[in-house]
Structure formats: structure tokens, C-alpha cells
Design goal:
Blueprint lengths: L28 H21 L5 H16 L3 H5 L10 H29 L2 H13 L4 H12 L5 H19 L4 H17 L4 H10 L3 H27 L8 H20 L11 H24 L4 H9 L2 H17 L6 H11 L3 H21 L1 H12 L3 H16 L2 H17 L5 H14 L9 H9 L4 H27 L3
């Protein structure tokens, strides 16, 4: 019997932990814990939406409030200096998730920066445009976003690739939507569904899934989703004309010159010869192939020296380190970069990552508090009674949180914390839990609108009015979301 065709298997309701020392325990039993959960989520949305509080601070404050209201003692929440054996829920929640996520995100970010500054993105886009020709230039842009989106963040991909979109649209005289929307679809799909991006990596850590399964299910669910988004892009791009924004073209030229100046200041002389396309594809594909090989070796091979070697090189930490060292040599040192230049580019790329890691860590704290206080179990029991499959619940919760507060990362880490108890009690396989992560990730990109920073980046960089951005970008994200979820739900019938 499939996990989608039947309601979740009923589990024996666990007794609420007899916490003592809580400051604000509202009501005893499941009803009180559900009230605490409702208040906590409402408070989180209020702090982020209305007061514009930074999501990390909001998640941390709500985690503390939920813990106290649910009956956790101050010692359980924070530990004490005197009692060295006291377990701090906040510290274990933060450390538990960041111990897995921080290294992957850090290595992936530095890899993306080297590919970006070396000109790898421009080479990839130019070669694909030449290969497919002017008539299929939208497809070339889509493939560029899909491939280059694997190692770089969504907004970085836009900043780097926007000038190529301007050039293609200006040359054809057609709406810029025909070129930017396929690109955006590729960037958004990889950002939502594939490691080393923060959302899927954080969910994998919270739900204890091997990254190899997340990569595999991300590709299987993401490719049909992005194909649906590309079909929508071609349809809407022929119906709404948006001219190339000349001010952004000029700004892009200035930005490109600024990058060249920065390279020269760091001791890197820009190369006349472009980076070989095979080198770019090899560097991007290396960690993915190593991680997938390690995942399947644990299934196909008996314990042996060969399996141990494959699993060593396929561990995400090792695989990404290998890819980064390859990028350092092939795109940097071999092309005349100094070691100081490599250090400068790598260090500067990590500056925007701090906020992401803190939000992910605070999401881990929120999940740990829900579990320790009994709120997560109360939610699990209630969702079991509703009778919806866990994969559907995961998607719906993620959609609600995404639409309400705008951040995909917040939606993913919060949803993962809420649904984790639904997966720990049952006999769920790694592939199935990876599909649940795909459902959560799909929900986290639904209906990007004015409370999402990505909405304004898209509108600004491609000169689209707010009204047309809602008609195009917002719908594009919804198509990606629904299509990705449908594929994940259907696959869960057979896993």
C-alpha cells in the first residue's frame, strides 16, 4: 500500500513530557500544546511580516517563547553553567543542524564564486547560445540557468547572467520575458530542489536524509517542473512585451568593468582566452557524481574496501572540497591567478552566507524546541487524525508559510521542524523522505509576490512592471511549485 493512497498510520499518542519549571504553560495536554503551536506560528508570521524583524531573531525569539509556554524549564532551554550535564535545547538544535549544513553551504558558495569571477557562466551561456541558434535562444538561456544554478545562489545567478539576457533580447528585438523567464526557471529550480543550496540541505539535515537521495529526487522532480515552467515562459513571453531596460544594460556594463577592476586590484589579470566549457561542466558535475556514487554504493555493494573508498570520496564534505580544489587550480592558478586572489574571492563570497546560516540554525532550534516540549508530537497526532498523507501536509504547510512571510528558507526549515515527528514514527525509506523534502521545497517557492525579495530583484533587473511581474514571475514560480509537487506525490506511490 502506498504512502499517498492511505492516511498516515495511526500511532499511539505519546504522553506529554512532565516538564516542571515552565513559566507560561497555558493548558494541560494536547489542546494546550496545539494552542502553543498556533500562537508560535502566528507570532513568527507577525514578527517577520508586520514588525519586519530579521528572520533569525524572529525564529529564535519564537522558539524561546514556544518552549516556555509549552512548559520547558529555563534549564532545559538554555542549560546552566553549574550543571555541566544539562542539555541545552537551543544549543543542541543550533549545533545539530549547522554541523551538517554550514560546511556544505560554505564550500558550495566558494565554488560558485570561483566559477562566477572566472567567467565560467558567460562561457556557458555564450556556447549554448551559439549551439542552439537565435531561434532556440530561450532554451539556451534556460539550460544556462539550470546548469549554472547548481553551484551559485539564485540572486548571484541573476546578477551574473542578466547582461547575457539583455544582449540576446536586444539582438532579437523580442520581449525580454522570452529570455529571462527560462533562465529564472532554471535558477529557481536548482535553488529550491538541489544541494548545495541552503533549503534542501537544511531539510536533509533536519530529516536525516542522505544528500545523494535528495540530489536524485531533486533531479527527477525538478526536471519535469522546469520543463513546465519553460512551456509557460514561451507562452506568456509571446503575449506580454517588455523592452530591454537600457538603464540596466548600462549598469551591467559598469558592473562588468567594476569586476575587471576588482580582479586587477586583487592581482588577477582578466584572461583573453575564455574558460573551456568542458572544464566548467566537469567542475560542476564532479561533486554531484561523487555523492550519487556513494549513495548507491551503500545499496549495491557489500561492505568492502571499494565501498569504503567510494563512500569517502562521495561524502558531501569531501566531494565539494575536491570540486573547489579543482576550481582553484583549473580556473585560478592555471590561468594566472595568485593565491592571494583566490583567498580574496573565496573570503568575499562568504560574507552573504552568514545570514543564511543563522536562519537555518534558528530553524533547527525551532524544530528542537517543538520536539523537546511535546508540541511536535501533538501536531503529529493531530495531523494523523486529519488523514492527509504526510507528503500533502508537508506541501500545504510550506505553501502557507511561504505565501505568508516570503522567505523560502524560513518556510523550509519551519516546515521540516513541524513534520519531522510524522516521519520518525513510521517505517519510511530514505527515498520517500527525500520526496517529502521535494514537496516542502516545492511549497517554499509557490507564488512569489511583494513580500519576497526575489520578486523585486526580478522586477528591477529585467525592467518588468509590478503588475506584469505578478502575471509572469509569480505564475512561473507557482507552475514550478505545483509541477514539482505533483511529480513528488506521484513518485511516492511507488517508493
Amino acid at each position: 500500500m502506498s504512502p499517498l493512497s492511505l492516511p498516515l498510520a495511526a500511532s499511539a499518542p505519546a504522553e506529554t513530557p512532565p516538564h516542571t519549571g515552565g513559566l507560561l504553560l497555558l493548558i494541560d495536554g494536547t489542546a494546550g500544546l496545539l494552542t502553543v503551536a498556533a500562537i508560535g506560528i502566528a507570532l513568527l508570521l507577525f514578527l517577520i511580516i508586520k514588525t519586519r524583524l530579521q528572520p533569525f531573531v524572529a525564529l529564535l525569539a519564537v522558539s524561546i517563547a514556544v518552549g516556555l509556554m509549552a512548559g520547558l524549564s529555563v534549564t532545559e532551554l538554555f542549560g546552566t553553567v553549574q550543571r555541566s550535564d544539562a542539555v541545552s535545547t537551543i544549543e543542541s538544535g543550533m549545533g545539530g543542524i549547522l554541523g551538517h549544513v554550514a560546511i556544505i553551504i560554505g564550500l558550495g558558495t566558494m565554488l560558485g564564486a570561483i566559477l562566477e569571477v572566472s567567467g565560467g557562466a558567460e562561457v556557458l551561456a555564450s556556447r549554448l547560445l551559439n549551439l542552439f541558434g537565435e531561434k532556440r535562444a530561450p532554451l539556451a538561456m534556460g539550460l544556462t540557468g539550470l546548469i549554472f544554478g547548481i553551484p551559485v545562489f539564485f540572486d548571484v545567478g541573476i546578477f551574473v547572467l542578466a547582461p547575457i539576457v539583455y544582449a540576446a533580447a536586444k539582438r532579437s528585438g523580442k520581449s525580454i520575458l522570452l529570455y529571462c523567464l527560462p533562465l529564472l526557471a532554471g535558477l529557481s529550480m536548482t535553488h529550491a530542489f538541489l544541494p548545495p543550496h541552503p533549503g534542501p540541505v537544511a531539510a536533509a539535515g533536519l530529516l536525516h536524509v542522505q544528500l545523494g537521495w535528495v540530489i536524485l529526487m531533486g533531479v527527477v522532480c525538478g526536471i519535469p517542473a522546469v520543463l513546465a515552467a519553460w512551456a509557460f515562459s514561451g507562452w506568456i513571453g509571446r503575449r506580454i512585451f517588455v523592452a530591454v531596460p537600457q538603464d540596466m544594460v548600462e549598469a551591467a556594463d559598469e558592473a562588468k568593468q567594476a569586476v575587471i577592476n576588482e580582479q586587477r586590484a586583487a592581482g588577477v589579470e582578466p584572461q583573453e582566452k575564455p574558460v573551456p566549457l568542458a572544464t566548467v561542466l566537469g567542475i560542476i558535475g564532479t561533486p554531484l557524481l561523487l555523492i550519487l556514487a556513494a549513495t548507491f554504493s551503500s545499496i549495491a555493494l557489500d561492505p568492502s574496501t571499494t565501498r569504503s573508498v567510494i563512500e569517502f570520496f562521495g561524502h558531501p564534505f569531501v566531494a565539494l572540497t575536491i570540486a573547489l580544489l579543482l576550481a582553484y587550480y583549473l580556473l585560478g592558478i592555471r590561468r594566472g591567478w595568485s593565491r592571494k586572489s583566490l583567498e580574496t574571492v573565496s573570503t568575499s563570497s562568504l560574507k552573504p552566507v552568514g545570514n543564511i546560516l543563522l536562519v537555518v540554525g534558528a530553524g533547527g532550534v525551532f524544530g528542537a524546541v517543538l520536539k523537546a516540549s511535546g508540541v511536535a508530537q501533538a501536531l503529529s497526532d493531530t495531523f494523523n487524525d486529519v488523514g492527509l498523507p504526510v507528503i500533502v501536509l508537508s506541501y500545504l504547510i510550506s505553501v502557507v508559510l511561504r505565501v505568508a512571510q516570503g522567505s523560502a528558507t524560513v518556510a523550509i526549515v519551519t516546515t521540516a521542524g513541524i513534520v519531522a515527528p510524522l516521519l520518525t514514527g513510521g517505517d519510511h525509506s530514505q527515498p520517500f523522505v527525500a520526496l517529502v523534502i521535494m514537496a516542502i521545497s516545492a511549497g517554499s517557492i509557490f507564488a512569489s509576490h511583494v513580500n519576497d525579495g526575489g520578486f523585486w530583484i526580478v522586477a528591477k533587473y529585467f525592467g518588468i512592471s509590478e503588475r506584469d511581474t505578478l502575471k509572469t514571475w509569480t505564475v512561473l514560480e507557482s507552475v514550478l511549485s505545483v509541477a514539482g509537487f505533483v511529480v513528488a506525490a506521484v513518485l511516492s506511490l511507488f517508493v
